[in-house]
Amino acid sequence: DVQLQASGGGLVQAGGSLRLSCAASGFTFDDYSIGWFRQAPGKEREGVSCVSSSDDSTYYADSVKGRVTISSDNAKNTVYLQMNSLKPEDTAVYYCAAVLATCTVIAGGRDIFRSAYEYDYWGQGTQVTVSS
Predict the structure, then answer these.
(1) For residue 15, with 0-12 CB atoms within 10 Å meaning exposed, 13-18 middle and 19 or more buried, which class applies?
(2) pLDDT 10s digits, 34-68
């Protein structure tokens, strides 16, 4: 069975750090790009970061750029999301997902985050709460 197990969420004060993990099984990990998405109450799911299967390229949403680092341990089939300088607006349920494609698509002449609707597999989510 395909599984994506997200973990590492929790309650942290503003300015703090968390490291999320996404452990994958049941599919050929090296063939898939792994993305992190988040969804806050009443808001749409948004892409946070992604690591591409083709060349390990990494991509970040503007809202987290400079504060978040994504990394992949292919030997463990696990992707990590190190989040620093957390802000209250980072509060959301964080999901990891896998897509048999690159992280981005070209639209309007620039790379944009591939839509969540295109992803093949999803984990169950982990709650991140940042207090002010």
Answers:
(1) exposed
(2) 999 999 999 999 999 999 987 889 999 999 999 99
